[in-house]
Amino acid sequence: MGLPVYATPGQRIWHYSYLAFCALVLFFLVSPLIVVIPLSFNASPFLHFTQDMLALDPKGYSTLWYKSLFGMCDAEEASLWTSCTDKWKVGTINSFIIAIAATGLATTLGTLAALGLSREHVPFRRTIMAVMISPLIVPFVITASGMFFFFAKVNLVSTMSGIVLAHTILGLPFVVITVTSTLVGFDNNLMKAAANLGGTPFYNFFKIQMPLIAPGVISGALFAFITSFDEVVIVLFVGGPDQYTLPRQMWSGLREEISPTILAAATILVLLSIVLLTTLELLRRRNERLRGISPA
Amino acid sequence: MAGLVFTDQSRLPPSPFLNNVSTMPTASANPAGPILTVDGTPLKTSLERSLKLSKLRAVGLVFPPLVFLIFLFVIPIGSLLTRSVDDSLSNKVLPRTLAAFERWDKTSEPDEAMFEALYLDMKAAEKLDLSKLGTRMNYEKSGWRSLVKITTRGLKRIEGPPYKPAMLKLNKRWGDIAFWQSLGAMKDPVTFGYYLNAVDLKYDGNKNVMRVNKHRRIYQLLWWRTLLVSTIVTIGCLILAYPVAHLLATLPLRISNLLMICVLMPFWTSLLVRIVAWMIMLQQNGVINDSLVSLGLLHDDNRLEMMYNFTGTVIVMIQILLPFMILPIYSVMKTIPPSYMKAAQNLGATPALAFLKVYLPQTIPGVGAGCILVFIVAIGYYITPELVGGKDGRLIGNLIAHHMQHSLNWGLAAAMGATLLAAILILYWVYDKLIGVDNMKMG
Q: How many CB pairs under 8 A join A and B?
């Protein structure tokens, strides 16, 4: 939206200050994330820009913190500033295992729920929907406390399966929401036609419905994945001392010894979020393209 | 009714009356009676049966996830909430003592019968229960924990009646009537004491509600602070989000998609990463202070303190929750045709009036959704205040975690959690009424 040629000076000032304000807000949103990236290549163990870095001197930069992140630090470097642990590596692997397992469970259960809820004759539809979405609304501290007592009773505290189950609960609402909203645009006549042509319900679902609602399922799965991958409160409450995940390692890093290793991890996570964002955007476009040609 | 059943035909096993429409014997055989399907059942029954079947299938799909959710989420939270009123431990461990307490006049010195009851109870109780009970009793009056501990240890030195002098010999505090009186606050198996504690109140021995000592009052302050922070964050987010959402909604799609990335990228980045980033920005040697100093706007000696305090919590929470405000407002603004504003101005309204009378009212649903969403998330925040809040940025969520993990006062943690949950559920209900939960969109 540009300014019309007849705009008064007052309107011009108003318009440009409005644009400037928006630019500042967007800058406020993004700048902290951008700052992390160069600082993670810091050669010194400080969390601010050193003189060398500001002068763009190669001496000021190193990949030391990335090496220590992957547990590959040299003995001499390690003895200087950082304790060389493989906790980051173990934590990352654990995070991936937990997130993938939780995502798989949440996606399966969530898709089932959404398919059921979008049928016409579901009793208590609204109530069930509200219950399904409630894990999003309840603060994680309360969820984690409740699960801690429950898991203590059934011996799931300090186990990885406990965390996976808890994260499944957290991811479920996302899948239900995204799949339900995709199903709104799904043309049920396709399923009728398929049944008419003799397909079994299973075959029809995987051959016809699933490919069409796939964008919703995948974006729900991505939400579930990132929720689990990022989650720390439940891991702290339910995980006990043995379960290390990446966010938990960052958490203890932030509370105990802040070293640029955290920044290296943060940079990788920022890049991961960019990858996820791109995937979602591509999915959205594909979905729109498919909608464009569908007879809806 | 029939229409509904027919639309669902695809998912049903072929029902007899549809496949053999031509051979239906019904109408000709008995024109006055009920219409029958081919196997002789009335059409109504048949329709009802297939409706039931279709319902059953839908329920069958919803059932497994619902059971999963109920077992792992609803029941655990429910049982957490029952902890907030559960005070059965003292009744389980000290039944005789509490019975003797009932007979006592609450003012005179405890008599031998009460000491005997206490001795018998403690003798019969398990060690673990006694130490738990000591902790529980300590919430009512400090000193109980050590008193119970000392007595438990000395119990076997008592040989027989009379018990009163023997107990007094173990610890003279047993003669202190205040300890005995405090039993009154825990004699019922169901208590609202934890809820009272959560707002700096407590029961005295006669179950009258009174305020706790001045230096122990922290919870009211924290509730107010939590409300204050959530309100400031909500308003701050609204002020920052509204113009940006407007810009995104009015710019051509190509540019707005690009700017949208700026909004979505933080949304998709790990919470902890964003907190790390803010620590770098806000700390004493951080990017903001360094920049201000090198620009000459700030003297090196009085660098701004922006972290580990109230300000830090608010700044970081606003940045983290801003996308939750921008996205709903944006999606509402997107549906408002720009011609409305033009029409209003064409009819003689100034831009400001046109905005107030025409544009703003139409954006209210988005604003409402965003505000409730941000408020709900902010009120239960835990991680951010814990990491950047310092001492005066702590919120109620932090205290719940503290009582869960460190002080182990689970009853109090549950009571605080229940109160918080009630507030959130009310807001959630309002949100559902205003916008509808199923209209929630993601990404």
A: 290
Rounded Cα–Cα distance for residues B395 and B178 (Å):
34
Positive or negative, the Cα torsion across B207, B212, B217, B220? positive
Best of B240, B273, B285, B318 to disrupt the A interface (most A CBs within 10 Å) is B273
Amino acid at B303: R
Q: How many CB atoms lie within 10 A of CB A6?
A: 6
Domain ranges of chain B: 2-83, 88-203, 219-439
Radius of gyration (C-alpha) of chain B in whole angstroms:
33
Q: Long-range contact list for B354-358, CB < 8 A, 24+ apart? A: none
> Given CA atoms A190, A193, A197, A201 in this order, what sign does their dihedral have?
positive
Is the CB of residue A190 less than 8 Å away from at least one CB of chain B? no
What was the ipTM of the complex prediction? 0.85
Instruction: Work out the angle between the directed axes of helices B163-170 and B144-154 (0-180°, nearest 10).
Output: 120
The predicted-structure confidence for A89-145, as pLDDT tens digits, reads as follows: 888 899 999 999 999 999 999 999 999 988 877 888 888 988 998 998 899 999 999
Cβ distance B175 to B112 under 8 Å?
no
CA dihedral B213, B214, B215, B216 (to 10 degrees): 50
Query: Cβ contact (<8 Å) for B263 and A26?
Result: yes
Q: Which residues of A touch B276 (CB under 8 A)?
A: 36, 250, 254, 262-263, 266
Query: Which CB contacts under 8 angstroms, 24+ apart, belong to B10-15?
Result: B10/A188, B10/A191, B10/A192, B10/A194, B10/A195, B10/A196, B11/A191, B11/A195, B11/A201, B11/B54, B11/B57, B12/B50, B12/B53, B12/B54, B15/B46, B15/B50
pLDDT digits (tens, 9 = 90+) for B310-336: 888 999 999 999 999 998 899 889 888
Other C-beta atoms closer than 10 Å to the C-beta of B259 total 16
How many other C-beta atoms lie within 10 A of the C-beta of residue A113? 28
Q: What is the pLDDT of residues A46-64, one digit of tens each?
A: 777 777 777 777 777 877 7
Gap between the Cα atoms of B376 and B434, Å rounded: 15
For chain A, the domains span 89-259+267-293
How far apart (Å, rounded) are the C-alpha atoms in residues A251 and B294?
A: 32
d(CA A108, CA A111): 5
* Token output for A243: 């379960």
From residue B161, give the alpha-carbon distance in Å to each of B58, B60, B155, B165, B172: 70, 67, 13, 9, 17
Question: Do residue A32 and residue B278 have CB atoms under 8 angstroms apart?
Answer: yes
Q: Tokens 């944006």 identify what position?
A: B330
Torsion of CA B387, B392, B397, B399, to 10 degrees: 110
Homologous superfamily (CATH) of A89-259+267-293 is MetI-like (1.10.3720.10)
Rounded CA separation A183/A165 (Å): 26
Please report which helix (H) or strand (E) contains residue B28, including its range. helix B26-29
Q: What is the pTM of this model?
A: 0.84
In angstroms, rounded to a whole number, what is the distance separating the alpha carbons of residues B129 and B93? 7
Residue B110 CA: distances (Å) to CA of A157, B113, B137: 45, 8, 18
How distant, in Å, are the alpha carbons of A87, A246, A273, B421, B430 from that of A269? 17, 10, 6, 32, 36
CATH code reported for the domain at B219-439: 1.10.3720.10
Cα–Cα distances in Å, from A38 out to A263, A264, B99, B217, B415? 9, 10, 70, 46, 46
What is the rounded distance in angstroms from the CA atom of residue B214 to the CA atom of residue B31? 87
